[in-house]
Amino acid sequence: MPDLDILYTTAAPGWVPPARLSKGNAPPAEIAEAIVKCLAAELRRGGGFPRIAELRDLLRNVADGQIGVRTGFEQLQVLERRSGGALHLSVGCQAARAILVRFAERQPAAAEFVRDLAAEYCRHLVQHRLFGRVRAVLVGECFTDADAAQAWEEEVLLALEPNLIRLADRLVADPTAHKLRAPHRRVARRNTADLLNQPIFGEVPE
């Protein structure tokens, strides 16, 4: 099977565009724009953020001291088991778990941790649907080692973060994601000449 086929079939359905751009050594900002568009579509297909109100209330109970952090983790574990393997609910529980870990460091205001929960949910979805699937292929095909791939991934995620936060804010306002759309494109698409002159991964410009 050709290398490109391996990469594109490894990416989750609907996530091929950022995988293609990654393989083609596109700028991180361009990859990030493709990711946020795929993320918005993923949220619409998956019904947004299932049980966000229940997870929000659980976090609020921990933040208010009604239950301890340990009990919060236990309740998340029960909820995740009851999800029956549903991806989006499972990812939501993982996102809530990440927020609980932060509670050990600080106690954010309610509005802040709801926003943090939605943003963390989006970050976890990106990992599940894209990076977690194509990372090994990219290391083998596009990068000399895992450290180089990790540095590249962090650069893409940094470029993604502003639009991811905007999308998370929209998700809080519309948890079903019925009308959710990605933020407007801010990076111009490259023309054919730019694409042809783009060096491949590992190539040193003259």
What does the model show?
The chain has 9 helices and no strands. The chain starts with a helix and ends in a 9-residue tail after the last helix. By secondary structure, the protein is mainly α. It folds into 2 domains: 8-47 and 121-185, no CATH class; 52-117, no CATH class. The model is unreliable at 195-206 (pLDDT under 50).
Strand and helix map with partners:
Layout: H1 3-10, H2 16-23, H3 28-45, H4 52-63, H5 69-82, H6 87-103, H7 110-141, H8 146-173, H9 192-197
Comma- or semicolon-separated keywords:
206 residues; 69% helix; mainly alpha; 0% strand; disordered C terminus; 2 domains
Radius of gyration (CA) equals 19 Å
Distance between the termini: 32 Å
Number of DSSP helical runs = 9
Kindly state the mean pLDDT as a whole number?
84
The total beta strand count reads: 0
The helix-strand sequence is HHHHHHHHH
Number of domains: 2
Class of secondary structure makeup: mainly alpha
Q: Tell me roughly what share of residues is in helical segments.
A: 55-70%
The amount of beta strand, in percent, is under 5%
Let me know the largest β-sheet: none
Low-confidence stretches: 195-206
Tertiary shape: globular
